[in-house]
Amino acid sequence: MINIKTFIFNPFQVNTYLLYDETKECIIIDAGCYDNNEQEIILSFIEKNKLKPVKLLNTHCHIDHIFGNNYIGDKYKLFLEIHEADQFLIDAAIEHAKTFGLEINKQPAIGKYLNDNEIIKFGNSELKIIHIPGHSPGGIVFYNKQQEFIIAGDVLFCDSIGRTDLPGGNHEQLVSSIKNKLLILDDNVKVFSGHGETTTIGNERKNNPYL
């Protein structure tokens, strides 16, 4: 069974997710830890629960979701796994951070590009990748059918969707992708978003004004 731990990190209040199962293998999705205190928070949880980080993943590569990649990658000797279409955001991260008066370290080397319908495995668990472009070109969602949840990044929020006015954004593409790939899931599939509270597919199908 997959356990999901949520951390809220950095000035953008990103939800960083740590997933682990009974084998103690864990994956980190959207490592947003920005300063020493936030790094210590996630490190302490990993050590306290005797977890073994085996994958460093991103739903997408806007800077608020990648601040902690360098720390996690270096600490646990992990390469970064993203969708290739967001590589340009990795390449521009240092300059982008400066526009907010922030600093970001060079990102870890890419170990693997992730593709639509690919299966990610850790411990006894699996996640399916669903490519949902529109918020960013390489936006992906991680779906577990057995426990009925998705890690959605900034694709889908409670009663909202990701902004599409950033480089590579496309409103029509985002809405179409959500409708055709996410709203076909069962109503009770839980949505763990990149910011804010959790929701369900059923709630968003019924109440989301953008859909």
Description of the molecule:
- By secondary structure, the protein is α/β, with parallel strands linked by helices.
- Helix content is 24%, strand content 30%.
- The protein is built from six helices and 14 strands.
- It has helices at 36-48, 69-76, 87-91, 93-98, 171-182, 201-207, and strands at 3-9, 14-20, 25-29, 52-57, 80-82, 110-113, 119-122, 125-131, 140-144, 149-153, 156-157, 160-161, 190-193, 199-200.
- It starts with a strand and ends with a helix.
- The model has no long low-confidence stretch (mean pLDDT 97).
Main sheet specs: 6 strands, mixed
Order of helices and strands: EEEHEHEHHEEEEEEEHEEH
Structural class designation = alpha/beta
Radius of gyration: 16 Å
User: Widest sheet: strand order?
Assistant: 1-2-3-4-5-6
Alpha plus pi helix count: 6
Total count of strands: 14
Distance N terminus to C terminus?
A: 32 Å
User: Strand content of the residues, in percent?
Assistant: 25-35%
- Low-confidence runs: none
Mean pLDDT: 97
Measured as a percent range, the helix fraction is 10-25%
The rough form would be described as globular
Q: Which secondary structure elements does this structure contain, and how are they paired or packed?
A:
Layout: E1 3-9, E2 14-20, E3 25-29, H1 36-48, E4 52-57, H2 69-76, E5 80-82, H3 87-91, H4 93-98, E6 110-113, E7 119-122, E8 125-131, E9 140-144, E10 149-153, E11 156-157, E12 160-161, H5 171-182, E13 190-193, E14 199-200, H6 201-207
Could you write a compact summary of the structure shown?
With 211 residues, this protein is of the alpha/beta class. The protein has 6 helices and 14 strands.
